[in-house]
């Protein structure tokens, strides 16, 4: 096993069309995430799935035990791939994620998933603060329109702003194509 792990964050049914909290570009992001997962498995990287459930039954989405809170079929975990259940935006908070990474000697994280402006932001900043080298695959992440002070911010702008902020000080931001090319190059050189 390598010292790299792929963290697949909250690619769950409620974020897709027909779900309780659909995101712009969820299908494309999941397709790209599936490609990244395939490459990580081939490379022998640890693949960890993170699944969010809200503790409250009146939550707007990801209600415990619901179909919407289940991992989307495009990115299902394989037997032996850990699934970390979380109840907060930050995937490290009150979960076994850090212990899983430390037990395997992981030094580098690749992050994909949803939502760019919440859980991807949260895990990326926390991982960097813990000292991991972090890469976010931007087109394997999805977001949604948000509103502040009566101003509607389109999902594409939300996503771009958060990727720009993370890329400034917390992570390397790459496309699926660039990430896969770099992964292929490393495996060819080995």
TrEMBL record:
Keywords: Hydrolase. This is Isochorismatase. CDD domains: nicotinamidase_related. InterPro entries: Isochorismatase-like_dom (IPR000868), Isochorismatase-like_hydrls (IPR050272), Isochorismatase-like_sf (IPR036380). One of its GO terms (molecular function) is hydrolase activity. Residues 5-147 form the Isochorismatase-like domain. Coiled coil: none annotated.
């Amino acid at each position: 096993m390598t010292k790299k792990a792929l963290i697949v964050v909250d690619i769950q049914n409620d974020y897709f069309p027909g779900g309780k909290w659909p995101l712009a570009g969820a299908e494309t992001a999941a397709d790209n995430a599936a490609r990244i997962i395939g490459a990580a498995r081939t490379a022998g990287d640890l693949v960890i799935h993170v699944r969010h459930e809200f503790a409250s039954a009146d939550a707007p989405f990801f209600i415990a035990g619901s179909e919407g809170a289940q991992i989307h079929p495009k990115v299902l975990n394989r037997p032996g791939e850990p699934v970390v259940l979380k109840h907060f935006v930050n995937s490290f908070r009150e979960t076994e994620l850090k212990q899983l990474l430390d037990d395997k000697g992981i030094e580098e994280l690749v992050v994909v998933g949803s939502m760019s402006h919440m859980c991807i932001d949260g895990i990326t900043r926390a991982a960097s603060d813990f000292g991991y080298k972090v890469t976010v695959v931007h087109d394997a992440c999805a977001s949604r329109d948000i509103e502040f002070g009566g101003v509607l911010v389109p999902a594409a702008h939300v996503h771009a702003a958060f990727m720009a902020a993370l890329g400034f000080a917390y992570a390397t931001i790459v496309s699926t194509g660039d990430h896969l090319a770099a992964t292929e190059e490393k495996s060819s050189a080995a």
